[in-house]
Structures are given as structure tokens and as C-alpha cells.
TrEMBL record:
S-adenosyl-L-methionine binds at Q279, Y306, D369. This is Methyltransferase small domain-containing protein. The active site is at C442. SUPFAM superfamilies: S-adenosyl-L-methionine-dependent methyltransferases. Keywords: Methyltransferase, S-adenosyl-L-methionine, Transferase. The keyword Transferase applies. It comes from the Eukaryota. Belongs to the class I-like SAM-binding methyltransferase superfamily. RNA M5U methyltransferase family. One of its GO terms (molecular function) is RNA methyltransferase activity. GO terms for biological process: methylation; RNA processing. Residues 485-508 are annotated as: Disordered.
Length: 508
């Protein structure tokens, strides 16, 4: 049985995923995407991103529109979609519209005298400089500005994709807004930036390492703790020489500043190393986690699939006091081994009574091919057939009861042992099959497909749905959808063969 393979039987399955793009499209498509990689647009970038005044600005691919940021075009479609599925109280939280991006992966190109730091122009590998991006947390822009000065002053060569030459390939900037020494209202504005420089060498012993250290020192001298403007949290290096589209290599080095990066989200302190997945929109993520809690009863057991560093599961573990009756409070499943360290650090700050674990595995079959889009097909299949598993378990339980009633010794002898043991195990397992499925999605198209597929099996019905503006300026919304086991209440099956004057109900 697939579920016993996963070892994730639980009352709750929390799922979160990201839309993964075809690797042929460019560096955004790797596991480590650069910001948002979105659909073509002809009018973006004018007000969101600064450009030379004399000629039409090149368009970065980060945003698709600049008007009505609080109401993405896709919202009407989403509202209709959920209404048709019986959820007429779909809500949408428009969240913070500017300065929301607390995590950005930016390409570094151009020359040392005129560096470009930004995103690709749609459909090309031409980097568009975005020094005043309004989506970025302002301190990301300030750190980018400082980085440019350092590149020029120290004659650092930006990467040349065609030749495979140059030194600095990408930079990841992540902002922490957790600072307990400041009043809560001032923390966001005063966020500090963790800078990860992706260096074009195998490791820290390469000939260009002196320059890497000089650049890190420059950033720290001018933006570190004792500088006039304290911008930086820390500086890291990542080493990458591959010519493929994957942004990060496997080797990370902490260079300066604090090693541990803490953020406060979903009611807990979370640790995020630069190598592990982190949500870009910290504030919107916090709103989603607050909403999510309402659907998780106190004492529930949770399996968090596609868990990253386990933020969702651990937030629930702490705020919903997840219980250990089934052997765990929260179990996280994640494919990226880099997430483990951050997960363990976060757990270290939780009460010891909370029993959480992370399992490094795929949520689909146990191969390590990540899904192109949406849920792994094997996961969808398992969720679709969940009631079958339960029905089988029930029927084997009732046959096992009949077996118990059987008095004739020759029949009892024939049915001995194996059947009894098998049916008992299956029944116990079925008791802990999930009753609620919470699906958090940033890929609207794949969400619709997965949703239809789950509902068509009749094993689930859609109970609630909420949208969040995780990426203002884009067509993307984050969806929090709550599925419950079985048919919706009031959706009773008609008895077959009997005529009824009532109108037929449309299937979901
Ligand atoms: C969008 S991130 C969400 C992470 C986390 N839930 C959060 O919100 O911080 C999706 C995660 O799924 C992981 N992932 C992708 N395919 C997977 C698979 N087949 N099995 C397990 N994890 C997978 C990625 O490594 C990534 O950490």
C-alpha cells in the first residue's frame, strides 16, 4: 500500500508546492528560481523598475502589470472557480503591495565598470537592471547598490554566460525582520539583509578567492553592524561553476556577520539557511499561516508534504499543540537535504514536548525527479483512492468479525492466522488516514487540475478556499484550499432504482 511506504498516515496533510518550470526556459526554471518567472508582458517595469529615461525601458520579467496591484486579474476566475465547486465565501487578502519581497535571487551581468543586477528580460538571457524595484524590500535595493559599488571598486568581473567566464554569477538577498530590540512597528522597515554571493569557482581555495573576500569585506565595512548605515545581516558565498541553469552549487561558506538567520513567522522563530527554501513574501506568508491555523484543531497530527525547512508544520505544531498519539506531532517530508539543518534549528527553539521529525524523501514515488507541475501524480492517485483503502479495510474488518463468529472447527482451521493479521493491520491503518487535506498552492493552473482530479474521485470535497496576494504585480495568487473527506454535507446519494420527484443534483 502506498501510504505505508510513505509512513505519513495522519489526520492532516499539509501540502505546499511551487510551480516548477521547464528547464529549457532559463535559470528561473531551476529548483532555485530567480524571483518570479512570469508570462510575457508588454507594459511592465515602467513604474515598478527604474530605467534610463531616454529610451523605452527594457522589461524585466518580474511583474506583468502595474495597476490594480491589490486585485490580480486572475481573481475573478478564481472566485468563479470556487463558487462552482460550492465555495461561495472565497476570500482574498490583498496584503502589502510594495516592498513585499524579502527574498530575491538576482543575476549579475554586464561589466565591472557598469554592472547589471536584476532579472532577465522575458524570453531572453539579457539582464535588466532593477535598482529601484518597488517590489523589493527597500534594504534589498540598498544592498544591491552597495554591491554594485563594491564590484566597480574592486574590479570584480560579472559572469559571462556565453564564455562561462567572470567571477560573480548571482546574488541572493534575504531580509530578516526579526529584531526584538526594536518596537514591533519598526522591525519590518529595519530588516537586515543576508547576502549570498554565487561565485564562479569550485571552492574558496581558487585564485579568485581573494577578490571574493575583498568584496565580502567591502559589503561588511559599508553595511555591517559597525557601519554608518547598518544594512547587512551576514555575507555568504556559494560556489558554482556549472554551465547549466541551476543558480546554486552545493558548496556554501559563511563569511561574515551572524551565521544563523532567524525570522518570526506563523507564531514561531524559524531558522533559514541561505540554501533552504524560504517564502519571498514574509508578511503575506504570516497572514496565510494565521488563516491556516483556524482549520487545524488542537491536538491534531500533521504531515507536512513538500515541507522545505518545515515552517508550516512547525508553526502548527507550536500553535495547535499537535499531539503525539499517532507517534508524532508533526512529520515533514522534503526532498532537499539542505532543509534539514534549518528544520533542526527551528525545532531547537520549540518546547521539547513537541515531537517533530523531517524525512528526506520524495512525496511521490521514491525517485528524486521533482514534479514539473502540481502534486506528484502518485500522490494524487493515493489521495483519490483513499476511500477505496478505507472501504477495503472496513470490509476486511467485517469479514474478520464474521470469522470470529464462526464456530465450525474445520472452517476455522482453514481460515487461521494470516487473514486475521492482515485485516487487523489494514483496519488500524485506515483509522489514521487523513480526514483533512490542506493544499497551499502558488500555481493556479496546476492547482485547478489537482483540485478537479481530487474532487472527481468523490473521496474529497472542497470545504473552504482563501487567496493571498503573495506576488503583487503578477498574475499569480497563493491559494489555501481545505478539502474534507467524503461528500459535502447535504450531498446525499440517491437510492438507486427508486423514482424521486426531486431535481437531480449536478455532480461536482
Ligand atoms: C514551494 S516550496 C515550499 C516549502 C515550504 N512548505 C514553505 O512554505 O516554506 C516546495 C518544496 O518542495 C520540495 N519538493 C519538490 N518536489 C518534491 C518532492 N517530489 N518530494 C518532496 N519535496 C519536494 C522543494 O525542495 C521545496 O522545498
Amino acid at each position: 500500500m502506498l501510504f505505508s511506504d510513505w509512513d505519513i498516515l495522519s489526520e492532516k496533510i499539509i501540502h505546499s508546492r511551487h510551480e516548477q518550470r521547464s528547464s529549457k526556459r532559463g535559470p528561473y526554471s531551476s529548483d532555485h528560481q530567480i524571483n518570479a518567472w512570469l508570462r510575457p508582458s508588454s507594459r511592465l517595469g515602467h513604474s515598478l523598475h527604474s530605467s534610463p529615461a531616454a529610451r523605452p525601458p527594457a522589461q524585466c520579467s518580474g511583474c506583468t502589470h502595474e495597476l490594480n496591484l491589490h486585485r490580480p486579474i486572475i481573481l475573478d476566475e478564481a472566485t468563479d472557480f470556487f463558487k462552482n465547486l460550492g465555495v461561495s465565501d472565497f476570500t482574498f487578502d490583498s496584503c502589502r503591495l510594495w516592498g513585499w519581497r524579502c527574498r530575491a535571487k538576482l543575476a549579475v551581468r554586464g561589466s565591472s565598470t557598469s554592472p547589471l543586477i536584476g532579472l532577465y528580460q522575458e524570453g531572453t538571457h539579457n539582464v535588466v537592471d532593477i535598482p529601484h524595484c518597488k517590489a523589493h524590500h527597500p534594504n534589498i535595493n540598498a544592498a544591491v547598490e552597495l554591491l554594485k559599488q563594491g564590484i566597480t571598486e574592486l574590479n570584480v568581473e560579472p559572469y559571462d554566460e556565453d564564455q562561462g567566464t567572470g567571477e560573480l554569477r548571482y546574488v541572493q538577498m534575504a531580509v530578516t525582520t526579526r529584531n526584538t530590540s526594536l518596537p514591533a512597528a519598526e522591525r519590518y522597515r529595519n530588516g537586515k539583509v543576508q547576502v549570498a554571493l554565487v561565485w564562479n569557482s569550485r571552492n574558496e581555495n581558487s585564485p579568485s578567492s581573494d577578490k571574493l573576500n575583498a568584496l565580502a569585506n567591502f559589503l561588511w565595512r559599508n553595511g555591517g553592524r559597525s557601519s554608518k548605515v547598518h544594512l547587512m545581516h551576514s555575507v555568504w558565498a556559494n560556489f558554482q561553476t556549472s554551465t547549466n541553469n541551476i543558480i546554486f552549487g552545493n558548496r556554501w561558506r559563511h563569511l561574515l556577520g551572524e551565521r544563523d538567520f532567524w525570522e518570526h513567522v506563523g507564531g514561531i522563530d524559524i531558522s533559514l539557511d541561505p540554501s533552504s527554501f524560504g517564502q519571498a513574501n514574509t508578511r503575506a506568508f504570516d497572514s496565510l499561516l494565521r488563516q491556516l491555523r483556524k482549520y487545524v484543531p488542537y491536538g491534531a497530527s500533521v504531515a507536512d508534504l513538500y515541507a522545505g525547512a518545515g515552517v508550516i508544520g512547525l508553526s502548527l505544531a507550536a500553535t495547535r499543540k499537535c499531539r503525539q498519539e499517532l507517534g508524532w506531532s508533526v512529520k515533514c517530508i522534503e526532498i532537499n537535504k539542505e532543509s534539514k539543518l534549518s528544520f533542526e534549528k527551528t525545532v531547537g527553539r520549540l518546547p521539547t514536548s513537541i515531537d517533530c521529525s523531517i524525512r528526506l524523501a520524495s512525496c511521490g514515488h521514491f525517485n528524486f525527479d521533482p514534479p514539473r507541475k502540481g502534486l506528484d501524480p502518485s500522490l494524487v492517485d493515493a489521495l483519490r483512492t483513499i476511500s477505496l483503502v478505507e472501504r477495503k479495510a472496513k470490509s476486511s474488518q467485517s469479514s474478520s468479525l464474521k470469522v470470529k463468529d464462526e464456530k465450525r472447527p474445520w472452517i476455522l482451521r482453514a481460515r487461521e492466522a494470516s487473514v486475521m493479521i492482515e485485516s487487523k493491520t489494514t483496519w488500524e491503518e485506515s483509522q489514521s488516514l487523513p480526514q483533512t487535506l490542506i493544499y497551499i498552492s502558488c500555481g493556479w493552473e496546476s492547482f485547478k487540475e489537482d483540485c478537479k482530479s481530487l474532487l472527481s474521485s468523490k473521496a474529497w470535497h472542497l470545504d473552504k478556499a482563501h487567496g493571498f496576494n503573495f506576488f503583487p504585480g503578477t498574475q499569480s495568487i497563493e491559494v489555501l484550499a481545505i478539502f474534507k473527506r467524503g461528500p459535502r454535507a447535504g450531498h446525499k446519494k440517491k437510492k438507486s432504482g427508486k423514482k424521486s420527484g426531486k431535481k437531480k443534483k449536478k455532480p461536482l
